Amino acid sequence: MKIGFIGLGRMGHHVAANLMKAGHSVTVWNRSQEPVAALVAKGAAAAKTPDEAMQGDAVFSMLSNDQVMRDVGLAGPLLEKCAKNLIHINLATISAAFAKELAAAHASRGLGYISAPVFGRPEMAEAAQLVLVAGGPAEQIARMQPVFDVIGARTVPLDAAEKANLFKIAGNFMIAAELEATGEAFALLRKGGVDPALFHDVLSGRLFTGAVFKNYGTMILNRVYEPAGFALTLGLKDVNLARSAAEGLGMTLPTAELLKTHYDEAVSWGWQDKDWAAIGEVPAKKAGV
Fold first, then answer.
1. Residue ranges making up the domain that contains 259
2. How far apart are CA 11 and CA 92, in angstroms?
3. Are 233 and 267 in contact (CB under 8 A)?
4. CATH number for the domain including 70?
C-alpha cells in the first residue's frame, strides 16, 4: 500500500518505520528534518509539503494536539489536495469534538477518516505492540486492518471517530489519576518512615499487577523522569481534554481538577520536559520528602 505519514515524533517515527518493515511504500513529512532524514536512510520518500504525503492510498498523522493539526491544514485546506478515496488515520489524542469535526470534513470531500489514538509508550510503538482504538466506518477500518496489524497488537473498533478519542481520553485520565495516587501513597509512606520500595514490591505482586503501577510506579519510586517517554505537558493536555469532554457532556470530574492543579504546578516548577509520571513527585515535594 502507498502510505503517507505526517508527524515523526517520539511515537510516529517508530510507527512509520514499522510500516516500511512490512513492505509498504511510505512518504514522510515532519516540520523538523532530522527524523525525516533518518527514515529516508531506511528507504522512505521525503515529502516537501504535507500534501505530498497525501497522494497515496492512506495517510497516517500523529501530531501533538488539535491546534497543531489545524495549523498543518488537516482540518480543511489540505483535504482539497488529497488523492481521491484517501483514508486518513489519525493516531493522535485529540478532543472528541475535533474528531467529530474532522470526520465530517473528510466525508464532505469523499475522503475516509479513522480516529485511531493509541495506548503505548515509544518502546511499545517500536515493538509494534500498540493498542489502537479505531473509530470510524466499519468498511474503512476493515480496509486498514492489515496495516493496523503491523503496527499494533490489538485494534479496538468503534463506530464513530469521536468515540475513539473519548475512549482514549478516559484511559489517559485513569492513568494520570493512578500516577497521582501512587505519588501520594509513596509520599505518605516516606513521611511516616516506611520503605516505599517494599510497599511497591508487595502491591505490584498482589493487588496492583498491571503495567501502570509496575512501570510508572518504579519511575515514581526511583524518582527518574527523564528522558520522557510522554512529556508532562502532554499529560496536562490530556487531563484538560478530559475536563472539556466532561463539560460538554454536562458532568464534572473532580479528580481531573486536582490533576490539572498539580500539572500546572509542575510546569511552574520547570518540569515541563519531564515524563508525565513526574506528577507523582508533586505530593512528595509538598510534603517535604
1. 166-287
2. 10
3. yes
4. 3.40.50.720
Per-residue pLDDT, averaged over 178-185, amounts to 98
The CB-based long-range contact list for 282-286 (8 Å cut-off, 24+ gap) reads 282/180, 282/183, 283/180, 283/183, 283/184, 283/186, 283/187, 284/183, 284/186, 284/187, 284/190, 286/187
Which residues fall within 8 angstroms of residue 241, CB to CB, at 6 or more apart? Answer: 93, 94, 95, 96, 169, 172
276: domain CATH number is 1.10.1040.10
Judge whether 133 and 205 are in contact, CB under 8 Å.
Answer: no
Q: Which three cell numbers stand for residue 60?
A: 497516517
Give the count of beta carbons closer than 10 Å to the beta carbon of residue 131.
16
Q: Are residues 173 and 258 in the same domain?
A: yes
* Of 219, 135, 216, 208, nearest in space to 175 by CA: 216
Distance from C-alpha of 209 to C-alpha of 231, rounded to nearest angstrom: 24
Domains identified in the chain, total number: 2
Q: Report, as an integer, the average pLDDT of 260-269.
A: 98
Single residue among 159, 184, 215 that ends a domain in this structure: 159
- pLDDT grade for 193, boundaries at 50, 70 and 90: very high
What does each C-alpha distance from 77 to 5, 96, 107, 159 come to in angstroms?
Answer: 17, 21, 14, 26
Q: How far apart are CA 191 and CA 188, in angstroms?
A: 5
Q: What is the mean pLDDT of residues 66-80?
A: 95
Catalytic residue among 2, 84, 168, 285: 168
Please tell me whether residues 228 and 173 are part of one structural domain: yes
Average pLDDT of span 267-279: 98
Q: Do residues 144 and 181 both lie within one domain?
A: no
| Residue 285 annotated in active site | no
- Claim to verify: residue 255 and residue 280 sit in the same structural domain: yes
Q: What average pLDDT does this structure show over 156-164?
A: 98
